[in-house]
Write a structure and sequence with these properties.
By secondary structure, this protein is of the alpha+beta class. It has five helices and eight strands, in the order E-E-H-H-H-E-E-E-H-E-H-E-E. The protein has a single domain, classed as Aminopeptidase, CATH 3.40.630.30. Strands 1-2-3-4-5-6-8-7 form an eight-stranded mixed beta sheet, sandwiched between helices. The two termini are 26 Å apart. The relative contact order is 0.18. The structure holds coenzyme A. Coenzyme A binds at residues 1, 59, 62-63, 122-125, 130-136, 158, 162-165, 167-168, 171.
Length: 204
């Protein structure tokens, strides 16, 4: 859903110097389990790769809209080094024997659509952590952060067959419409006007 190449010109995002860091927090999911939400770190590389390996082919296809055996190295590099004020990458972690596992991730970067004031997002939740409200919690935070970064809309491209993501988008008051010129793809989009009502927050 997120393309690997960013536009040459970037939108008028908030200057990096004025952007506060996201404060890590623990949240309780609907099934009682807890995760820590925090910004991605450079040292997360191996955990991101492991999380990708744990995903089924179907989940990878839903997320990347193509069959992927491995993460594109350039996209991984970009994901590990978000540009302050433009990109945002949030991970959900849980303790594991080797330290942590990443069980969810969501990100945005400037959209490549014609609307330079929009950012484009993507989200993935590990299979055994779904239907707990984790994606909702991640996207709620993206929405708030994107608004603070000065974006006026947040959007994403979703396969028309991706019923969970379409249901989630509708649940979070995104508009859902066919993506122009892309058969089988939908555009989910939500305006981020200052002062607009926040996303529905049922969890944490
Ligand atoms: C889409 C995805 C992110 C949803 O994650 P999730 O953590 O399970 O979502 P939530 O628990 O926050 O679900 C919120 C709502 O979305 C809808 N929803 C989520 N999964 C659904 C499913 N399988 N079937 C129907 N509705 C679903 C429901 O309305 C749900 O609310 P409810 O559980 O109270 O009924 C997850 O399935 C996923 O990672 N899929 C693979 C990657 C992908 O497709 N990413 C999106 C494109 S980038």
């Amino acid at each position: 859903m997120i393309s690997t190449d960013g536009p040459e010109t970037v939108p008028r995002a908030r200057p990096a110097a004025t952007r506060s860091r996201y404060r890590p927090r623990r949240i309780r999911l609907r099934d009682g389990r807890e995760v820590t939400l925090r910004e991605i770190r450079e040292t997360d590389e191996s955990e991101i790769l492991e999380a990708f390996e744990r995903l089924s082919d179907e989940s990878r296809y839903s997320r990347f809209m193509q069959h992927k055996k491995r993460i594109d190295p350039a996209a991984l590099e970009r994901g590990l080094h978000p540009r302050a004020g433009l990109d945002f990458v949030l991970v959900a972690t849980t303790p594991a024997q080797d330290g942590i596992d990443i069980v969810g991730a969501a990100q945005y970067l400037p959209s490549q659509s014609t609307d330079a004031r929009a950012c484009e997002f993507a989200v993935t939740v590990a299979e055994d952590w779904r239907r707990t409200g984790l994606a909702t919690a991640l996207i709620s935070r993206l929405v708030r952060r994107a608004r603070r970064d000065g974006y006026q809309a947040i959007e994403g491209r979703v396969l028309a067959s991706n019923l969970p993501m379409i249901a989630l988008a509708r649940d979070m008051r995104f508009d859902v419409e066919p993506a122009t010129g892309e058969t089988g793809t939908l555009l989910v989009r939500r305006a981020l006007m200052a002062g607009a009502a926040p996303a529905r927050r049922r969890y944490a």
